[in-house]
Design goal:
- The protein has one domain (2-145): Response regulator (Rossmann fold, 3-Layer(aba) Sandwich).
- It is 42% helix and 7% strand.
- It has six helices and four strands, in the order βαβααβααβα.
- It has a two-stranded parallel sheet.
- It is globular.
- Bound molecules: 4-nitrophenyl phosphate.
- Residues 3-9, 34, 38, 119, 121 line the site of 4-nitrophenyl phosphate.
Length: 146
């Protein structure tokens, strides 16, 4: 799960996907990262922690890290939160196999729409909406790959 800062959207995506995978009894390794380095080492944004908690998910064990090109080898699937993250990740891909792993998160819930998860960093009221978009997309990821 990759966004820009790895403090708002992708930590929620990681928490939601981990919860769904655990409930389905799947042994998936799920992680998140940011294309930017500014927040590395930090807890998720307090507003993401709050909205996750309101929905029964604890994400306070997470710490932000920057995306590294090796992630394209270590993971089978790289889910970008928005079209900019998608393009930034693709710049690191060196093989067609790596390029195929990079997908836009909301393509799973809104196929072909090239829809982005809106960046809620400057919008205190955007976090529940982001949670719902990610929950819907993660449910489709689960259905597709479980
Ligand atoms: P995220 O949100 O990419 O969903 O973690 C952001 C967090 C921090 C910044 C931008 C977006 N920032 O500019 O510091």
């Amino acid at each position: 799960m990759v966004c820009l800062g790895n403090i708002c959207r992708s930590p929620l995506a990681e928490g939601i996907m981990k919860t769904k995978a655990a409930q389905a009894g799947l042994n998936w390794h799920i992680d998140s990262a940011g294309t930017g380095h500014w927040h590395a080492g930090e807890l998720p944004d307090r507003r993401s922690i709050a909205v996750a908690r309101q929905n029964g998910i604890d994400i306070t064990d997470q710490r932000a890290r920057q995306f590294i090109p090796e992630d394209l080898e270590r993971f089978d699937l790289i889910l970008a939160m928005d079209t900019r993250n998608h393009a930034d990740i693709l710049r690191h891909a060196t093989t067609e196999a790596q390029r195929q792993k990079v997908r836009l998160m909301l393509d799973y819930s809104h196929p072909g729409a090239a829809r982005s998860v809106p960046d809620p960093y400057y919008d205190d009221n955007g976090f529940q909406h982001v949670f719902e978009l990610l929950d819907e997309a993660c449910e489709q990821v689960l259905i597709q790959y479980q």
